[in-house]
Amino acid sequence: MSEETINKQEMPEQLSDILLVLDKEKMKIQAVKSIDENGKMETVDPTKKNQNQFMRVDKSGDFFSNFFSNFFSQLKNPTNFTFFKVPAPVAAEKAQELQKHVDKPTPQGEKVLKEHEVKAEPQPDKKQENQNNMATAQTTTEASEYRYKPEQIDWDTMKNLGLSKEYLEKRNLLDPLLRGYKTNELLPIGINLGGSILRTDARLSLQQAEDGNVIVAIHGIKREPNLHFEFFGHKFTDEDKKNLLETGNMGRVVNLVNSKTGELMPSIISIDRLTNDVIALRTEFVKIPDEIKGVKLNEEQKQTLMEGKPLYLEGMISTKGTEFSATVQFNADKRYVEFLFDRSNNNQQAQTNQQNTQQNNQQSQPQEAPRTFRGKELDDEQYNKFKAGQTIYVELKDKKDQPYKGYITFDKDTGKTNFEFPGQYKTRVEPAETHKTQTAVNSEGKTNEATKNVQEPLKSGQQSPKNEKQQEQQDNKPAKSKGRKM
């Protein structure tokens, strides 16, 4: 879980800072947005409205020092600027304070400016060195996006959950974990309780404990979102509950309260549709794109989405090239603008039913065969046969970790996975060759070419008409009618 996302389990500390810059010619404080390949810096006004555009840097010493050194060396005219580092939550306020001290210099103001100022020695002005520095800066920036390293993970704990590094990499789930996010899908895990093993589906994330160690957090499935109690000081209104249950998004910005510091945190709230957790995202971390499916957003539309509100867009172009319209809204859990197509008032019940079917493999409508059964992941050969409807042999383990074997078959119509022990499976004996015609006719409504027009049940082993009457039926000769003439 990252510091931007808030849920009931944890209130992480803020780990990023904002880089402010003073243009010595204009004597104006701005927030750094980016720097292009030509060394030109792009800035924005340091207001709360623009805070989603501020460049964020890791506040830890080594990361920041390396980043700023490389950033500074890329600037076209580095001596024209003075830089300041301020905490992200108060960046706008600090920028105003620093601007006041710039406009009206005082000894006290000079002390404040020096307190936040950051410096770096300019690098020699050589093209090759600048290219190397730029490459290093890009690598450092990319690396700093990862909050954790693979070696920080307690792989013994992962093993006890039935997971491994190779498994997570194969499913493309390790990368979001290292970035501080939850896995984007439910994982089958087993928790050893000593005398028994609890098997369930859950999302996972990495969190840093008070002692600095990285621990694995398990986000299990809840029956329904907990909207009856206060959420970081916010009491859900009836309208809030209605929106969250129908669309998964609350649709407005509210001030949540940091239980440790008392700080007010403007945030939007959504429901994790996989687990039913209540998730909040601070508005400063909401990123709105300039364009959605070919439709360029104006400032008013962007502001609507920034505030967590739904927005109806027309004239979007799908990946197939067709035009469509839909309502879009920013989701705090997914961290992007999602499409809200038809959602009924029974959406929450549908979510609950979907989660129950995921746990029990009891889907009420056809869907793709599950890759995992009772904690056992099928290999490619097994899975290809399984999803094609063939019966496959598997070796499993029960709650006491004791091995057992059986056969599983996937029913495409019901979405169920049927299991049979070897003894049960052997009782399903195929009919003998001499009985196949009889079985096909009486049980399956089928027949062979020689008896396809016979209207009477066939005898065991019968392959052709048994008498003159059946021969006439087979030859399509009309039988004498015993019906009443109308």
List its salient traits.
486 residues; alpha+beta; six-stranded antiparallel beta sheet; four-stranded antiparallel beta sheet; 14 helices; 23 strands; 27% helix; 25% strand; disordered C terminus
Can you describe this structure in just a few lines?
The protein is α+β, with helices and mostly antiparallel strands and 486 residues long. The protein is built from 14 helices and 23 strands.
Note down, in words, how this protein is organized:
The chain has 486 residues and is α+β, with helices and mostly antiparallel strands. It folds into 5 domains: 12-144, no CATH class; 150-220; 238-340, no CATH class; 361-426, no CATH class; 433-474, no CATH class. Helices cover 27% and strands 25% of the residues. It has 14 helices and 23 strands. The protein has helices at 61-74, 91-103, 107-116, 127-144, 155-160, 165-170, 174-178, 238-247, 299-306, 347-360, 380-387, 422-426, 436-444, 468-474; strands at 5-6, 16-23, 28-35, 41-44, 56-58, 81-87, 117-118, 187-192, 197-208, 214-220, 254-257, 264-271, 278-282, 291-292, 295-296, 311-317, 323-331, 336-340, 372-373, 376-377, 392-397, 403-410, 417-420. The strands form 7 sheets. Strands 2, 3, 4, 5, 6 and 7 form a 6-stranded antiparallel beta sheet that branches. A 4-stranded antiparallel beta sheet has the order 1-13-12-11, with no helix packed on it. Helix 1 runs antiparallel to helix 4 and helix 2 packs across helix 3 (107-116). The longest helix has 18 residues, at 127-144. It is elongated and about 120 Å long. The termini are far apart. The model is unreliable at 8-14, 121-144, 343-355, 357-366, 429-435 and 478-486 (pLDDT under 50).
